[in-house]
Amino acid sequence: ERLEAKAYLHRGLTVIFEDKAHGESHTYHYEEGVRAYLAKLLAERGLEPVGAELFYVERTQEADHRGLPELECVMAWTEATDETFLSFVNSMPTTSGGTNESGLKSAVVKAVRNYLEFHNLVPRGLTIAPEDVREGMVAILSCYLTAPQFQGQTKERLNNPETQSVIDGAVRTALENYLLANRTVGDAIAARVVLAARARSASRAAQPVARTGAVSHPPNLPRKHAHSS
């Protein structure tokens, strides 16, 4: 599974696994790279992207000689009620996130909120929270750093402070431009976000009523779960 992930993260690379014990050979090769990886994740969960498109952005080191990280990111919004973020640093999974995921999530929230405000798509009195924007998102982020700093010995969480602002800026600008240039997709994502905000607002408004008369045994209210794996 790790070899397959590496093949996705390095598009065009051919990875061959020889299992001599069982006389088997497995070849992994993906010309579409992380886009094929996201398509696989969506198919496994039976999900379709809202707006029928994936958003993709790439930032190569050749375009910037300041030693800042190069990155590749692909994402889609779906009708799922959770969020899924997979992040990698130098092909290693950062399962506990860190500054790389923080930069991505911040960029997405800013870009979508700007689109909503620019086109006046937020209903009066409704507040769009960060979790509303991210609900249903499935995203993969891969970046390469010359001197990565990790938290703990397991290297599952990235700590490089400069990485957050670089990813935030690169992804936010690209996503804003993409949404503005693709109004059909942008409006579909906007409707999905507004729906999430309305559901959250309605759930919160119903809580005091649901708890009345059942103080000792409050009901199990629906909660949204965020997954970063």
Short structural description:
The chain is α/β, with parallel strands linked by helices and 229 residues long. The protein is built from six helices and eight strands; from the N terminus they run H-E-E-H-E-E-E-E-H-H-E-H-H-E.
Write the layout of secondary structure elements.
Blueprint: H1 2-9, E1 14-19, E2 24-29, H2 34-44, E3 55-59, E4 70-77, E5 83-89, E6 92-93, H3 99-118, H4 130-134, E7 137-144, H5 161-181, H6 183-211, E8 226-227
Parallel strand pairs: 5-7, 5-8
Antiparallel strand pairs: 1-2, 3-4, 4-7, 5-6
Helix pairs in contact: 3-5, 5-6
Describe the protein in words:
- The protein is an alpha/beta fold and 229 residues long.
- Helices cover 41% and strands 19% of the residues.
- The chain contains six helices and eight strands; from the N terminus they run αββαββββααβααβ.
- The strands form two sheets. Strands 3, 4, 5, 6, 7 and 8 form a six-stranded mixed β-sheet that branches. It has a two-stranded antiparallel ribbon with strand order 1-2.
- β1 and β2 form a beta hairpin.
- α3 packs parallel to α5 and α5 crosses α6.
- The longest helix is centred in the C-terminal third of the chain and has 29 residues.
- The protein starts with a helix and ends with a strand.
- The C terminus is likely disordered.
Quick tags:
6-stranded mixed beta sheet, alpha/beta, two-stranded antiparallel sheet, disordered C terminus, 6 helices
